[in-house]
Amino acid sequence: MNKIIFFSGKGGVGKTSCASSFAISKINQNKKVLLVSTDPAHSTSDIFEMKINNTITTILDNLDAIEINPEEESKKYINSIRNNLHKIISPAILSEINTQLDAASVSPGTHEASLFDKMLSIINTEIENYDYIIFDTAPTGHTLRLFTLPELLGSWIDSLVKKRKKVVNYKKMSLTDKNKRKNLEHDPIIEILNRRKENLEKARKIMIDQNKLSFIFVLNAEKLPIDETKKAIEILNKYSIPVGTLIVNRILPKNIKDEFFIRKKEHEIKHLKTIYEYFKDFNIIELPLLERDMDFKNINELSNFFKTDKNLV
């Protein structure tokens, strides 16, 4: 069973319920678990009926959790860049640099980049402290942007390094002092960019390693969640990110007498057939629709469906 597990899917299909119940099933097997929420609309605190912060919080014996605040992480991300640049950039252009960084803090992609850094930091620093790190992610589109970042940012960083090397070479050509030219051999900006690239490569290796990471999609037996899951898996396949398990959540009971739910069950059966045909190579787990609102008692009930690992390998 892989140590790093991502739960993803369309908004409202029950990702938090599934991720939380899976976490409970693991601590019932005496495993130590870290449950990480990356969804800005955090529900983990609501399910466990306690405040979970942007730092690791103990929920139960062997179960810790953290709710990542993308806005807070974005500020930390920009400030770390600002601090690094302040050490190596001339004071004459610091004002312009700060203006650009302020603009970048609200630009598209900054939240994703900072969130990705935080996720990678959690994996790298906590992987040895837990048997499982379970990520309860934001709706599909947001998660896909996160997982495609190593490819996109890697190319962008390569371009920046190439341009920076040209600038450094021009500086070398203009200097006659050998010592000054030698100092340019270790350009701090290039070193920062290369470290960033190394971290991205490390993340990339984790993502495509089927022995380290499992990606689980949660969906309902309805057309829109099925269509979204198909598209998402196709995108992840392009980036060689493994997906092996689907959880079909909120299955209606069999013995229904109400006319409305009889027709609803007929549609559900049709969609289940589509799921089992299209995703025939995947492990598929069915979870029932519960008669009560989701709470800690229900989480314990759902955890019984994850007693064995065979469906989640």
From TrEMBL:
GO molecular function, a single term: ATP hydrolysis activity
InterPro entries recorded: ArsA/GET3_ATPase-like, ATPase_ArsA/GET3, P-loop_NTPase
CDD domains in UniProt: ArsA
Cleavable signal peptide: none
Coiled coil ranges: none
Domain of life of the native organism: Bacteria
Family per record: Belongs to the arsA ATPase family.
Protein name: TRC40/GET3/ArsA family transport-energizing ATPase
Organism expressing this protein natively: Helicovermis profundi
